[in-house]
């Protein structure tokens, strides 16, 4: 993995952080998660940046955690991966700048977690969101136990998580999960319009608005991340998870690492 796994640029006060593993549908392994966390923190600490845009290359925003490394490596790196994912999620929420997630294609597992940690989400009509943790013998992570309920309410959150629903972009908009839906060809222009407006806005007012809203709506995020990490490390080492992964990869040879946690 090289630094090209996460592209980073700053132009006219807008930082772009882009997952760039299209051959893996932007599935995230530990090295990529570390780099993603570093880039989010780099953007957040840059006083020239007025807006952060999180995106992905290819036909997926993010297909989840990458299972391609194999079970032994996944289990061995579980604690580090969960801590690093928590750093990425916290970085998005705590960044003083507003974060726009530009979603084109699936946002699955930790990919959906990253989208939910953003402040504004613009998705194309072909996008969808899936949190399939329970089907893999896992619990939700990446702060989802806090961010999902804060967005859609407890009952809808339970339904999405326990039934592993595939939520289309239109349904996600209706449920309050995302901010806007557009055609695929309009995504770049829509995100550019929003990000330019935010980057040119009154920085202090925007920063404090984000902070105050998140302090109220996501008051339990830190504890959620801690509880999720503690329990998920156990679940990742369980026979339930191993059997679920073996069944999944057995059905989808060559697709390991996609549409998972």
Automatic annotation (TrEMBL):
InterPro entries for this protein: ClpP/crotonase-like_dom_sf (IPR029045), Enoyl-CoA_hydra/iso (IPR001753), Enoyl-CoA_hydra_C (IPR014748)
MF terms in GO: catalytic activity
Gene3D superfamilies: 2-enoyl-CoA Hydratase, Chain A, domain 1, Lyase 2-enoyl-coa Hydratase, Chain A, domain 2
Pfam family, one: ECH_1
CDD domains reported for this sequence: crotonase-like
Family: Belongs to the enoyl-CoA hydratase/isomerase family.
Protein's name according to its UniProt entry: Enoyl-CoA hydratase
Protein source organism: Rhodococcus koreensis
């Amino acid at each position: 993995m090289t630094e090209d796994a996460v592209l980073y640029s700053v132009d006219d006060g807008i930082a772009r952080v882009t997952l760039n593993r299209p051959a893996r549908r932007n599935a995230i392994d530990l090295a990529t998660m570390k780099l993603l966390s570093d880039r989010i923190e780099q953007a957040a600490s840059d006083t020239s940046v007025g807006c952060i845009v999180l995106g992905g290359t290819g036909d997926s925003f993010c297909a989840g955690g990458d299972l391609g490394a194999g079970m032994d490596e996944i289990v061995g790196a579980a604690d580090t991966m969960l801590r690093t994912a928590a750093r990425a999620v916290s970085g998005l929420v705590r960044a003083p700048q507003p974060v726009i997630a530009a979603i084109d294609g699936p946002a699955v597992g930790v990919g959906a977690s990253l989208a939910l940690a953003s402040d504004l989400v613009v998705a194309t009509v072909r996008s969808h969101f899936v949190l399939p943790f329970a089907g893999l013998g896992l619990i939700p992570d990446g702060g989802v136990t806090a961010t999902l309920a804060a967005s859609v309410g407890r009952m809808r959150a339970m339904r999405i998580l326990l039934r592993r629903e595939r939520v289309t972009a239109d349904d996600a908009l209706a449920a309050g999960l995302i901010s806007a839906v557009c055609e695929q060809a309009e995504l770049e222009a829509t995100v550019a319009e929003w990000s330019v407006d935010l980057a040119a806005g009154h920085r202090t007012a925007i920063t404090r608005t984000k902070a105050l809203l998140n302090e109220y709506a996501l008051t339990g995020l830190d504890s959620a991340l801690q509880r999720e990490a503690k329990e998920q490390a156990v679940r990742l080492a369980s026979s339930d998870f191993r059997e679920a992964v073996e069944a999944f990869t057995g059905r989808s040879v060559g697709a390991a690492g996609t549409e998972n946690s």
